[in-house]
């Protein structure tokens, strides 16, 4: 796929037009609501600069319902205003009277950030695209706009309302970030050399298991190494007793059902998925490395992969020609439990071609100053690995359909 398959800002006359831009500002947040890493916010600035002569309304999400960091977009608007050097007005409404009247009163150069679109329950319902177009949000908002731009590469693997609902009704194209991601990831696919290893960590267990299966089935990866919560689920699936605190954590995240799923994938790809041999347990803040068979007896939470695993994984990663990192190896924000994540990042930087995707791991790449040493740092987590696994991303597919329709009618 090339950037020519869809329209971009260059294809539209944007002067004084009212433009709805779906952005992905989903950022790691601390319990007090502070944004820990603003890379995603910053990454949309080129798009906003190119829309200076328009009236721009941003639609975005933060986290998922039920999670601790499921919050309003107020903090995001403040940070964005700082980067843009112009006010980004936060409106605590998505498509109600307040939002619609604020949009109607906009002047050229104004930028509005609407409320977290996932506060609206229909956003996350999976439905055919033509049904998405008939929902309240799309019917209320679309008459107010001339153009829709999708700049939210990082959530374009979701067929959600704000991603695919407007493209059938409004002239639609990609923002600058979307263009940049597609170009860079396409380049990496073309040069993708073997052995290719995907290192899947973090806490989005369902996504990681799906990707492991996809990339191993398609031949997109020769091997998958697992870390983070996904490793714990895989260990449990392989028959290891990971102890009560770790099982409870999996349950609290709603991932108990993923254990059976992980079992199927482990059986299907025997020998292709690397599991941790040891783990770092958190004993009141102190790191204790133990063999995987000893984890259960200690009754403590696993907060990182163990040192033996770090050494084994690092040597495999360094010798690979292509490495894709997704999700941290442990609770990297806790002192002593960042070692796995840092060492995996360093090893990946020494491999042939390195890509990191996802908010948390890319924040750690920048934390240790390894940004320049990576071939590509993607703003996408799940979207990046789905793209590299060869999946069609609904958000990008919707832009392609919109481009065809636009070209036929122009
Ligand atoms: C991400 O952080 O990967 C994107 O913002 C998508 O978020 P989601 O996995 O909650 O849909």
UniProtKB/TrEMBL annotation:
State where the protein is found: Cytoplasm
- Binding positions for ATP per the UniProt entry: 333, 358-361
Give the primary localization class: cytoplasm
Q: Which reaction does it catalyse?
A: (2R)-3-phosphoglycerate + ATP = (2R)-3-phospho-glyceroyl phosphate + ADP
Q: Which gene encodes it?
A: pgk
Q: Which residues bind substrate?
A: 24-26, 40, 61-64, 118, 158
Can you state the subunit structure given in the record? Monomer.
The UniProt record lists the keyword Cytoplasm: yes
UniProt pathway: Carbohydrate degradation; glycolysis; pyruvate from D-glyceraldehyde 3-phosphate: step 2/5
Q: Where does (2R)-3-phosphoglycerate bind?
A: 40, 118, 158
Record SUPFAM superfamilies: Phosphoglycerate kinase
Name of the protein in its database record: Phosphoglycerate kinase
Top class in the EC scheme: transferase
């Amino acid at each position: 796929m090339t950037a020519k398959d869809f329209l971009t800002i260059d294809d539209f006359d944007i002067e004084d037009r009212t433009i709805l831009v779906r952005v992905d500002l989903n950022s790691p947040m601390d319990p007090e609501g502070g944004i820990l890493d603003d890379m995603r916010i910053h990454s949309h600035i080129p798009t906003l600069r190119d829309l200076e002569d328009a009236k721009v309304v941003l639609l975005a999400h933060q986290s998922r319902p039920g999670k601790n960091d499921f919050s309003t977009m107020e903090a995001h608007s403040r940070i964005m205003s700082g980067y843009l050097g112009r006010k980004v007005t936060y409106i605590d409404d998505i498509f109600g009277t307040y939002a619609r009247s604020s949009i109607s009163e906009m002047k050229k150069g104004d930028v509005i950030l609407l409320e977290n679109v996932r506060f609206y329950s229909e956003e996350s319902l999976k439905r055919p695209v033509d049904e998405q177009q008939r929902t309240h949000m799309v019917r209320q908002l679309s008459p107010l706009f001339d153009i829709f731009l999708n700049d939210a590469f990082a959530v374009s693997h979701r067929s959600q309302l704000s991603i695919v609902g407007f493209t059938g009704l409004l002239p639609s194209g990609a923002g600058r970030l979307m263009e940049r991601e597609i170009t860079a990831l396409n380049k990496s696919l073309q040069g993708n050399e073997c052995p290719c290893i995907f290192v899947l960590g973090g806490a989005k267990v369902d996504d990681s298991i799906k990707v492991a299966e996809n990339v191993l089935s398609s031949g997109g990866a020769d091997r998958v190494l697992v870390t983070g919560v996904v490793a714990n689920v895989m260990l449990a699936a392989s028959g290891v007793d990971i102890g009560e605190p770790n099982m409870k954590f999996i349950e609290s995240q709603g991932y108990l059902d993923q254990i059976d799923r992980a079992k199927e994938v482990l059986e299907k790809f025997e020998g292709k998925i690397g599991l941790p041999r040891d783990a770092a347990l958190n004993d009141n803040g102190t790191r204790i490395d133990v063999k995987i068979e000893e984890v259960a007896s200690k009754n403590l939470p696993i907060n990182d992969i163990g040192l033996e695993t770090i050494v084994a994984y690092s040597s495999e990663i360094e010798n690979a020609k292509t490495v894709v990192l997704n999700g941290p190896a442990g609770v990297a924000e806790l002192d002593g439990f960042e070692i796995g994540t840092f060492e995996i990042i360093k090893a990946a930087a020494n491999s042939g071609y390195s890509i990191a995707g996802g908010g948390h791991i890319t924040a750690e790449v920048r934390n240790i100053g390894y940004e320049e040493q990576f071939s590509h740092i993607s703003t996408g987590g799940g979207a990046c690995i789905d793209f590299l696994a060869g999946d069609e991303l609904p958000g990008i597919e919707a832009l392609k359909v919109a481009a065809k329709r636009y070209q036929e009618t122009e």
